[in-house]
Amino acid sequence: MTTEQPTAALPDAPTNPVQALLEAPLSLRERKKLKTRQTVRREAYRLFAEQGYENTTVEQIAAAAEVSPSTFFRYFATKEDLVLTDEYDPAMITALLERPTDEPFLQSCRAVMTGMIHHLLEHERQELVTRMRLVTEVPALRAGLHRADNSPQELFLTVLTRRAGVEEPTYEMRVTAAAIGAVTTEAVLRWATGGGQEDIAGLVDRTFALLESGFVGV
Hints:
This protein has helices at 17-23, 28-51, 58-65, 69-75, 79-84, 88-97, 105-123, 125-137, 139-144, 153-164, 171-193, 200-212. By secondary structure, the protein is mainly α. The protein folds into 2 domains: 24-82, Homeodomain-like (Arc Repressor Mutant, subunit A), CATH 1.10.10.60; 86-212, Tetracycline Repressor, domain 2 (Orthogonal Bundle). The longest helix is centred in the first third of the chain and has 24 residues, at 28-51. It starts with 16 loop residues before the first helix and ends in a 6-residue tail after the last helix.
């Protein structure tokens, strides 16, 4: 009689739980595209640290990542988008939609965001600090953070409409999404301005507590 041996993990299975979360819903082809995006971003951040954001060109980033400039633009519309966009939104949407449907939306957001932040700080802290430092220090990035296509408001609005099973969001949904998007952006910017020294998970949790209280005492 033979004893069944534990199944070994696939060689390319991610050990980083954040990476595993991002890759879980993706096909093999999509996982390869994700890894290319991440390689380009990682090399860009390295070059930004070495020679500054303004002095780094798309051509230099592409060469460092061993892709062509045209490939760069297939993944990022501009150099600014490389910093302002990320791969976490789909994972956030999935996690929010998996919360109990009768749970107040603010509580769902509070639980999911603090949980995601804990994972990011444990496994991708330096990239998160680098990204937010760039946003606070580079005027073009700071301005771009408030563009409609980069606003977290759209993420929350997407979840609200899906949870309600409606095609178009109501006014109340838009106000709720706008408020959550604005306060979470403010929390992250405060953390970045302080050099990442403050407890960002605690700050976000405090932010949602303030929202849930209806700003009592402000």
